[in-house]
Design brief:
alpha/beta; four-stranded mixed beta sheet
């Protein structure tokens, strides 16, 4: 076989023009390494040594070196150096504006810190006092309800959504009495032998029942009929000498256990009041006023705030009958002592007799709803139902806060 050598390539000189250029042929078979060098190439140039100037002898300015960081490539397990830019020069940080109290959730330091500490102490003290007040309230409430349960009556509770007062102002020796008078002086003689009695089974016919005296006082659903109530009329109910059933007799209403739950609550501007947690129908008998039976002639004026006279036959401008008594609920009584006055009340009172005779003037004072009363509506009654517009200068007159459309402006006790 014959070898074929590559054809020579034609190279144009970069310095020659297109018209005068001659082709230059390079022989590829010639080994350039074996070609001898010319003497001119072998001659090395002389280096001239010059003296250094003072500027050249000066040290150069120190330059900041670029730092590098080494990162490990997880795929190849090789360290790769990457250039990291130099950190910026340190500058003085600007003063940030003060954050608002709301933004940082606390008060600033200094004087306000002391205020914050005092507020915390005050809130802690208030919480302790509130807890202590609540405990005292529960203790008294439980003591009262022990008595109501013993009498088969509905419970009584205390409610205060206005302030931290734990309880109403009560005598240190106050005793709760649900449905009777306390008679330490023996003012009520035993007249049981003179009771008006009946021999009925159901007491449905007023002409047959001697206690009803040919008059029906209550409806079949045990509501009082006489509305509005005449203060000079006493309702005679059946008593312990009657043969009728105590639970089924329709003529035993005020003496039955109270079935309406009561809340003694703090009002906005009239102290403590009374209400029910359930709605009350018109004519519903709610309970009786209780306390200590006292001789009305022996009481001082400063005790009149919680006294209720039992002079059922007294007319306006007349003196109380001889031997009349009053009921004082300062040291003992029930929830009715908290019922406030109103010139346009939703309760009325009437006198009822079932454990004595009318001639003794010792009736019970029963409270009855004059109209439908929604749940948690304050109970009120008129302290002076026969009064006209009072003279503010009258001794004992107090400003009325009932704010009703018929408000007289003042009332007396």
């Amino acid at each position: 076989m014959t070898s074929i050598s590559p054809a020579p390539r034609k190279i144009m000189s970069a310095t020659s023009s297109a018209s005068s250029s001659r082709p230059l042929f390079i022989d590829h078979d010639v080994d350039l390494k074996k070609r001898p060098l010319s003497p001119d190439i072998l001659v090395q140039p002389k280096i001239m040594k010059r003296p250094l100037s003072p500027d050249a002898l000066a040290l150069p300015k120190r330059k900041r070196l670029n730092t590098s960081r080494v990162s490990l490539d997880s795929s190849s397990n090789n360290s790769v150096a990457t250039s990291m830019p130099p950190p910026p020069p340190t500058k003085k940080q600007p003063i940030m504006p003060e954050m608002s109290e709301k933004a940082r959730g606390k008060l600033p330091e200094g004087r306000d810190a002391k205020l914050r500490s005092s507020d915390f102490t005050a809130s802690l003290t208030s919480a302790k006092s509130t807890s202590k007040a609540r405990n005292r309230r529960l203790i008294v409430q439980n003591e009262w309800n022990k008595i109501t349960r013993r009498c088969s009556a509905a419970p009584v509770s205390f409610v205060n959504d206005i302030d931290n007062e734990d309880l109403p102002s009560l005598s240190p020796n106050f005793h709760y009495i649900e449905n009777q008078y306390y008679d330490p002086h023996g003012l009520k003689p035993d007249y049981s032998d003179f009771f008006t009695v009946c021999e009925c089974i159901e007491c449905s016919d007023p002409n047959e029942c001697g206690c009803k005296d040919k008059m029906i006082a209550y409806t079949e659903d045990v509501r009082l009929i006489f509305l509005p109530v005449d203060r000079n009329i006493e309702v005679i109910e059946c008593n312990e000498k009657c043969s009728c059933d105590v639970n089924l007799c329709p003529n035993r209403v005020a003496q039955k256990p109270r079935d309406v739950p009561i809340e003694v609550f703090k009002t906005k501007d009239r102290g403590w009041g009374a209400r029910s947690s359930v709605a009350v129908q018109k004519g519903k008998v709610l309970g009786i006023y209780t306390g200590t039976r006292e001789d009305a002639s022996n009481l001082s004026a400063d005790r009149a705030a919680y006294c209720f006279d039992l002079d059922g036959f007294e007319l306006p401008g007349e003196e109380a009958p001889e031997g009349a008594c009053t009921v004082d609920s300062r040291v003992c009584g029930n929830w009715t002592r908290f019922i406030n006055h109103s010139c346009l009340p939703n309760l009325d009172i009437y006198f009822v007799i079932y454990d004595t005779i009318p001639e003794t003037h010792h009736p019970y004072i029963a409270f009855v709803a004059k109209k439908f009363i929604p749940a948690r509506t304050e109970f009120t009654f008129d302290y002076i139902p026969h009064a006209n517009i009072l003279n503010p200068t009258k001794k004992g007159a107090r400003p009325c806060l009932c704010e009703s459309t018929s408000c007289r402006g003042y009332y007396t006790l």
